[in-house]
Design a protein that fits this description.
This protein is an alpha/beta fold. The protein has two domains: 124 residues, 3-Layer(aba) Sandwich (Rossmann fold); 103 residues, OB fold (Dihydrolipoamide Acetyltransferase, E2P), CATH 2.40.50.1020. Helix content is 34%, strand content 33%. It has seven helices and 15 strands. The strands form four sheets. It has a five-stranded parallel beta sheet with strand order 2-1-3-4-5, with helices on both faces. Strand 8 and strand 9 form a beta hairpin. The longest helix has 18 residues. It is globular. The two termini are 17 Å apart.
Length: 237
Amino acid sequence: MEYKIAIVEDDHAARDEMRRMMKTYSVKRKIGLSVSCFYDALSFLNDGHSDFDAIFLDIQMPGINGMEAARRIRRKDKNVLLVFVTNLAQYAVEGYEVHAYDFILKPLNFESFSMKLDRICNELSHSLNDAYLMLSTKGYERRVRIADILYVEVLNHDLVFHFTEETLRIRGTMRKMEEQLAIHHFVRCNSCYLVNLKYVRQFKGNTVLVGTHELRVSQTKKQSFLVAFAKYAGGSV
């Protein structure tokens, strides 16, 4: 398996350093990375970007900056992994608008950069793109992509499926849905929430940030949830 990576970075030294680190990582991990470099966002957008698995975008670039480029990419491609490379951490919140997968802070450090690449390659290796669910809602069948589900919530006797921009409510049981989604890396953080691990951003005390949603983690589920996420992020499942 070889992953196609784009680096969009106007700084020559930073661009070459990132490409060099990716080449070293590829050799050490024995993971194929095909890396293409672009000097600015406009040249990248004009070149066409539908074939890449992941795009590393500098945010501060002349002309079209990385955030605006990401917005344009998302209009055509909802699935490509967007990774921002910046020296300004405050852009992280804005990145949720374009569903950024991760942020990498400059200056780059190979050890921490490798850990980021581990997570990115692990995400790309999970075959979720073609997995779908058929949900019966409001008298009709709705086909949804499993990779787009942030989490499932029990509400009264219904299941509420949370997506980035909408929710769907159906009749069903959490136990059956948990069994169905287990192979797609959905894990309960408490009795009410079944979480897609790909959208977990942060743990804080007894809460977990899933996309932009803060969910409670129960004491009974906390250990198993943390273990499941560690395995997922580390690429061992």
